[in-house]
Amino acid sequence: MALDLKADRFRAIFDISPLGIAVADRHGGLLEANPAFLAMFGYSLQEAQGRNFLDLTHPEDRDTIAGLVQDVRNGKTDSYQAEKRCVCKDGREFWAVVRCTALRDGRGDITHWLGIMEDISARRDAERERQRLAAQVQQAQKMEAIGTLAGGIAHDFNNLLMGIQGNISLLLLDKAPDHRDVTYLKNVEKSVMRASELTRQILGFARGGKYEVKATDINALLEKTAEMFGRTRREITIRKELQKAPWKIEADQSQLQQILLNLLVNAWQAMPGGGELVLQTANVVIEAGHPDTPADAVPGPHVRIDVTDTGVGMDTHTQARIFEPFFTTREKGQGTGLGLSSAFGIVKNHNGFITVRSEKGRGSTFSVFFPAASGAVAQKPKPAGAGRGGGSTILLVEDEEMVANIGRQMLERLGHRVIVAQTGDEALALYEKRRAEIDLVILDMIMPGIGGGAVFDRIRVIDPQAAVLLSSGYSLNGQALEIMKRGCRGFIQKPFSIEQLKQKICEILPVG
């Protein structure tokens, strides 16, 4: 059977079709292909001629296509349609949907194959992206639900721990230091603190990476992280040169610890035979336009963290790519290439930046810069003995009866006069009536009816200078942080001891 593709009407359709069209002989050898088909694979017509349809199919898909071809040869059908991976001239792969028809002569024998092909890579990528985004939304919704549940558990559990801690504090006040019960009570107190830490960890995990930003002492976090890391890395020596009184930074501590661990692991992997790891911190001031800092670096006071190893070092090409996602110099299976790119992203989200200095065979230094917290540079230590030791009138707003009772007893043992309110409405009525005698309000954040935030705002309307100490089973984040930004004087997280309560009150109330 002669196939005439020279007729004008068929040649025009053949040439301008956005779909790839090819004609092959009875054995699948390509005879003719239109521009769209050739563009898909990157061949010229001369290069494509003589190649077999199966040659252009990904090796893993060839058996499937061969089976469909055989069905046509056996007369089960005249055509087939399939999605398959194709291989270009340069080795690039793409997905296509192929519709292939056998052309037969009068006796029914196959003389040619006509194939029409559509590149569906973009469509498949879009579908995968849609599925990925849908999965992200589902995961976010799930984590939000878990976070809400975990938050409620943490709040209620910490209220229970507050009852235990409060009673222990009161018992310890009545015991001489050498009393036989003191050791046992201190052990219970340690267990309460460990249980409270556990609730904070659960809450942090359940939030799925949401920021819990707070003022952070980088030295304390670096010491803790280095100790944890060094326990299982005995082949390296860790030396610390830390800035005395580093400026505080505003950071999410779990994410900050992740950055430090990524940098420590990277340094350890660069020293396969062991070596020395030097950790340094410093207060520095970044100048605008300095050649050693990125163009988008924010000028002003920063805290710098240096992680220096004595490892294999890097050439300039590697340094230029070190923060790219999935870039790694490790052997296959020994690293994902995400550690440093993740650290880079977290630092950027904290308005900081990272630099790297390295030389092949002479180790590397990664420097991380975080802006100092607002007011951190000008902070001065409070004079010793500031604050009232007792004798103030305090409005304690707490809806949990057990916590309210123990809080009242703790405050009275500190020498304060206590007025207790168990609802927001009651607290506002009492403050309106007795504000002249109330020196401090200790306000629970989560209450039925009017919540702590609304009570705080209405108290400040009554008296813009009102001193309020926020109390909560949650950590200082989210709603609590917003209340603090509106002028709340302090925050104390349950469970707290009588000494912690005394210290907070002394920080807030003026010298009497």
Quick synopsis:
With 512 residues, this protein is of the alpha/beta class. It has 15 helices and 17 strands.
List the SSEs and their pairings.
Elements: H1 8-16, E1 20-25, E2 30-33, H2 35-41, H3 45-48, H4 62-73, E3 79-87, E4 93-104, E5 110-119, H5 121-173, H6 180-206, E6 213-216, H7 218-230, E7 236-241, E8 249-252, H8 253-269, E9 275-286, E10 300-309, H9 316-321, H10 339-349, E11 353-358, E12 364-371, E13 393-397, H11 401-413, E14 417-421, H12 424-434, E15 440-444, H13 452-462, E16 468-472, H14 478-485, E17 490-493, H15 498-508
Helix pairs in contact: 5-6, 5-11, 7-8, 8-10, 12-13
Q: Which structural class is indicated by helix and strand composition?
A: alpha/beta
CATH superfamily of the largest domain: Histidine kinase-like ATPase, C-terminal domain
Distance between the termini: 110 Å
Form type: elongated
Number of strands: 17
Contiguous runs where pLDDT drops below 50 for at least 5 residues: 205-211, 332-338, 378-389
Major β-sheet, in short?
5 strands, antiparallel
CATH class group of the largest domain: Alpha Beta
CA gyration radius, whole angstroms: 35 Å
Which fold name is given in CATH as the topology of the largest domain?
Heat Shock Protein 90
Tell me, rounded to a whole number, the average pLDDT. 83
Oligomer: single chain
How much beta, percentage-wise? Answer: 15-25%
The helical percent reads 40-55%
Number of helices: 15
CATH architecture descriptor name of the largest domain: 2-Layer Sandwich
**Major sheet: arrangement of strands:** 2-1-5-4-3
Number of structural units classed as domains: 4
